[in-house]
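Quick log. Single chain, no ligands specified.
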Amino acid sequence: MQSDAPNGRRFSTHRMLSGMKIRKKLIVLHTAFSLGLGAILLIAIRPAMSKVILGAEVDQAERVLEMMLGAPIEQMSGSSWRIERGAEATIDIADQALYQARLDPQRSIKIASNGFSAGVVRWLPEDDEFVVVRARAERARDAIQLVYLLMISTLLVGYGLVAAALELFVLPQHVYRPIQAMLDADRAVSLGRRDDELIPDTEIPADELGSIMESRNDAIRALRTNERELAYALDRLEQTAADLHKKNHLLETARKNLEGADRLASLGMMSAGIAHELNTPLAVVKGLVEKLNRENQLSETEIALLIRVVRRLETLSDGLLDFARVRPPMNKLADLSEIITEARTLVMLDRKDVISQHAIGFDLSVKHGVQINCDPDRLVQVFVNLIRNAVDALAESGLPGLKVRIEHTQEQRDGVPWVSIRVIDNGPGIDAELVDRLFEPFVSTRLDSQGTGLGLAVANGIVREHGGLLIATNHASEETGSGAVFEVLLPVNHSGTHGI
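-> predicted structure:
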């Protein structure tokens, strides 16, 4: 049964009971059960009791009728019986009963109660009249009332005994006490009292409520076990983190030591290269200076030679400064196509005669709008070295249809955007013996006065400072023939942390 509450919410018996404590719920429930049982019993026995009263009143009315037959009968009535005589039109009973009385004049027909009592009707054929006798069975009615009273009294006494048994013996021991023990244990959990958070086994009954309490104890034990395991795992994690920190420190120290060792090795190689590179031009300068000291004059050819040698020494010095520079690179947003275009322009100015003489073409396939974080000046230096090396290699090859192609692609590496720039020529390629040492200082395939052997080493160092990688390979295809490929891989958003 439901009805609308004033606040618009649905009100129900379930909601009413949910706000009560268990004791009140049980009182309401077994009271409602007892009342319902009493109502059912009353409804069930009422037809039987009514039938008993009907039978008693019919029997009593028939006896009165039999005693009065044969004597003059007038309309009369008393406190417990009534007699009525008359024609069919004057008798207030059902037509069916009158019809049955006409069919069998020797038998009395039962009639229902009219509020006073039940009775019988008989037809008197000789007088063409009906006689109705109603007798009220007071004793039977009193007995039925007594039965009702006893039944109600029995129900009340039974309800009282059941309620007393439940409240005194059953519920306190098997419901209220276990629930209170569970509440005390839960309160101990919330207050952090570990010794009282488990329900004692003596408080756990052997029923469904006891199963719930045992399940709750098992859950608490599992929780504490997980807490201990988690604390142990955290301790191990802290120890592992401390060990990892120490190992990282050792690795960083080892890396610095390796860098120092590598630097020393590079310095040793550089020293040998410097000695080799400086001996020849210094010998020339020394001879010319001695001649100038002896003769106080030099020929135009010797003066030009001296100037060329001094310029070579300057070039070697600039290369050494680039290789040994210590200033950090800038980091700003720059357009890749502008860097490539500037590098190509510088090479075309520096190698104008060579490019014109050997008809070397350029194919620039780097589109505008590709932005990267870098030091533009240093990247220009990288591509100047790569393009100039390609031009020089093509010029020395003497092959027809010489071309330098520059292209780029964009890609993702571990979710980080990268850009790849390739400088490709169709010359003779890189000597296989030099591929592994190509980026070491003073490694050069050109023995003329323009080569120092530091260009690729400087370019490789600049690319690595940008978190990238410089790769040199040979290629062979039907479209471009053979030749060298120098690929520069750079992170688009370099911040000093990306690398390969």
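The first strand starts at residue 2 and ends at 4.
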